[in-house]
ATP-binding cassette domain-containing protein
Amino acid sequence: MIEVRGLTKSFGGKRVLDGVDLDLTEGESLVVIGGSGTGKSVLLRCILGLETPDAGRILWRGKPLSSQRAEFLDGFGMLFQNAALFDSLPIWRNVAFRLLPRLGRKRARALAIEKLARVGLAAEVADLFPAELSGGMRKRAGLARAIAADPKVIFFDEPTTGLDPIRAAAINALIRDIVDETGASAITITHDMTSVRSIGDRVALLDRGQVRWQGDVSQMEHAQDDYLQDFISGRARPMGSQPQG
Ligand SMILES: Nc1ncnc2c1ncn2[C@@H]1O[C@H](COP(=O)(O)OP(=O)(O)OP(=O)(O)O)[C@@H](O)[C@H]1O
């Protein structure tokens, strides 16, 4: 569905992506992990067209994504880190933001309430403002917005950041259910290994601008890669021996 080949991107002489090859197949949930500053967000921004790569290709359904950007974005949903809700809009308008012009107020509001129910939020939440919600509720509202237009592709950017372990586990489980239920393809970027195990079918480890290891989540624990094993177990290495980030 999405093929990334030889993706390269530098900022001011610093090469952040250095030939990234990655595939996302139809209906698959791919999780991208990697140390801080390894280019996970830059990779997502390149796919979204918010950054222009220096070299490489991004294909969607076999053709350059750049030539079908509008169609791609139409069938795309995203859960932003910290949910990124508009503070001045009630929750239902946040959820139905993209659909309001097309559906009109009444249908858009009804759809928002339906999506809020799907993520475990009561109808009364629809008329609250983001500041009135807890972090976990905001994350759920962001998730409702991500799925409002029944996307074919969903990106989850650090979905559990800022949540306690119990709320994080609930969000992970909800994301997995939604991905299974909708059949959408998903890319998640995270540092949270619990998210990897809960959400992912496949995992790709970015290191020094390249995909250092990729495979099924079930193979990850037994993979012969020291850095991956350090990453999984949260083990620190002696100074000078860790990969650059
Ligand atoms: N617009 C930009 N201009 C200059 N440098 C940038 C820009 N965007 C990203 N970078 C640099 O690219 C590197 C990778 O950043 P990126 O945000 O993709 O990392 P990340 O893997 O998502 O990190 P984290 O896990 O900490 O969020 C960083 O060194 C960052 O400073």
